[in-house]
Amino acid sequence: PVPTPCCTLLLEAYRIEAKDARIAAMRTTIAKTFPEPNRRLLQRVLKMMYAVAAHSAENRMTASAVATCMAPLLLKPLLAGECGLEDDSDASGDDAAQLLAATAAANNAQAIILALLEDYDTIFGESQQFVSSPAMRTEVEDSKREGCSEQGVFQMLHDEYCDAQNDLDAEFKESPDQLCG
Questions:
Q1: Confidence band for 64, pLDDT divided at 50, 70 and 90
Q2: What is the pLDDT of residues 124-156, one digit of tens each?
């Protein structure tokens, strides 16, 4: 998950009213406060989420649905109440106030992830380089030399998924009891 201090700053950036300023603040927050491994992981997870949402006609997972599923995993400190989410409720143990606070945190987490997905290109644009470790540079250079593009990698993964699904379908047709039993 996103570290608590970074999550707090991301929440603050997300709360900016003007969209352009909000996206710029989120981009700056990620670039300047996230540790490099966390930035790279977030970027990769968002790419995966984008790939899932790109096939929403087949899998019914829209960007909003994917964000709803992944937000609790990525922004766990926000949902755990560790990000200083301002609320007007008291902490006296009122169940209704706690429910409202939890709902607000979940809504904020989902909205932040959705914004990161929708504005991915702006936030993680080419002018912002996240490939800074020597191992990562080597990995990227090797894939370029082998002629692999990012789209090619997604296509390869899609083809492997389809092959695995076809194999599973064939096994199920041959002996459905073995798969369920």
A1: very high
A2: 885 433 333 333 333 334 444 455 554 554 555
* Dihedral, 4, 129, 153, 58 alpha carbons, nearest 10: 50
% of the chain residues with pLDDT over 70:
64
> How crowded is residue 28: how many other Cβ atoms within 10 Å of its Cβ?
14
Residues 6 or more apart whose CB falls under 8 angstroms from that of 157 comprise 51
Residue type, 72: P
